[in-house]
Amino acid sequence: MPTTLLAATTDKNLELVLRVLPAIVVILATSAVCGRLAILVKQPRVLGEMVAGVLLGPTLFGALAPDAQKAVFTPEVKPILYVLSTIGLTLFMFLVGAGFDHTGGNGKKDSRNAAVLAVSGIFPSLLLGAASGYLLHDRLSRPDVTPFEFALFVGGALSITAFPMLARILYERGLENSQLGRMTLLGASIDDAAAWCFLAVLSAMHTGAGALHALRTIGLTAVFTLVMLTFVSRLLRPMGARVERTGRFGFDQLYVVVGIVLLAGWFTDYIGIYSVFGGFVAGLAMPRDPAFRQALHGRMMDIVCVLLLPIFFAFSGLNTELGGLAGWGMVGPFLLILTAGFAGKYVGCALAMRGIGFSWRESWAVGGLMNARGLMILIFINIGLAQGMITKEVFSMLVLVAVLTTAGAVPLYRWALPERLERRMSPTAQTVTTGTPATESAPAHS
Prior knowledge:
Shape: globular
Structural class: mainly alpha
Distance between the termini: 81 Å
Number of helices: 18
Order of helices and strands: HHHHHHHHHHHHHHHHHH
Oligomer: single chain
Number of strands: 0
Largest sheet: none
């Protein structure tokens, strides 16, 4: 009997493997093609991967070949893709945090400017989005959702900046460690952390869990961040010094690092904040030694970006259905939400940047980048849809807002900062312009 049971279990596992591997191959092939097409039209590869995920879902693949789509992405395969996608995004954000040079430049001034940028990215979008949601409540909301809850959800969704998307764009352009890039990444990370705390409060309100549950989540997040950046960071310093001294980064060190990242992601998921922030904070806690950071990047970045991140985009796309926008009656509400989201981020961030001393060109460039919402908003609204806070029509509108604002991020950035001016901002350039008067950096934008 045990032998029979073992054989049955083995057959079941083998069948699952035979289902999962073709799904991953389809994801990688589609991501490679769409990523190349995105580059050809001068968009970041990550936008192509995002579109690939949507195309593999019910919007295109499921509509043109529903039987084939169901055969590739079976119910048994989706949970495995979810686990792989979560691990991939957590590891990627860990690498972003590990490579994040928060010790360079004018640390206090950069942090202060990032805080100003974060506030300017959150509140204008939140207020405009909430106003739009309040106006559209009777037309678009579920009857059991109050106007206040619906307005806050729409505003919260529009206040998100896609931190992973922004990080990929800056990495592809080599600006992740420019002072402007560091400040934008830090501002976006504050934006998204605030958005997830905001969602925790909204979920508590909607489900009746109460304010204490939301306060518990926020408090535990603060304690986790403090412990990681003080206690854990100090424990890891000898490992960084050893790698710097010997030039060797072995499997023992890799086991420790990956274990810390996965535990950090698990804990932040457990307390109600998405695991991506656990990975990022774990990266910030890593040793700052150049050899250690270079070894981490060399060992992990390629496999994470080529294999695991496309699975994340595809899994999110499988839950995206754009059929809810059928009919002209949805055009007006969609344009109102799109305008509120775009203007709040773009204008709000640009004016704040100009107010703290950046040139108009730098200010508009950051406004364009901060407008990239990517799949973080998809995660946000998928939670809202699952919890019954929004309808499928609103979900579909916000998906399109994510695609359009993300697609506009790089063109707006390039319009404000052409390559000849961007090169002057590179970390390797002799002169880096951040927070300097407009006459000392890029020409003022009229």
